[in-house]
Design brief:
The protein has 100 residues and is an alpha+beta fold. It is 39% helix and 10% strand. The chain is elongated and about 70 Å long. It binds zinc ion (ZN).
Amino acid sequence: MTSAYVEIMETVEKLRKDLEELYENVKKEQTLTPECPFCRKREAFTIQDSTDLNTPRGAPTKYRVVCDAIKDGCGGSTGWKENIEEAVEIWSRPKRFFSS
Ligand SMILES: [Zn+2]
């Protein structure tokens, strides 16, 4: 075996490990993203803040989670909440109805 061959095989092994690690992280991230209580999709999970919309000047910023239709979600959303944590918490609750 030439040293070039050994070197290549070491590089391949390193890349394989990196890829495995990346895959693990992606899997972890997917399970961390709560699923939509309406359609169970995780991929469309989006946090919006009210400054994105035409809110009255000086109104406090509010936040909501939406199942973004642009990302092929169902458009379901929480109501506007004081902070991101609250919106995500409501979104993550066991499946139930909630009003806006
Ligand atoms: Zn949805």
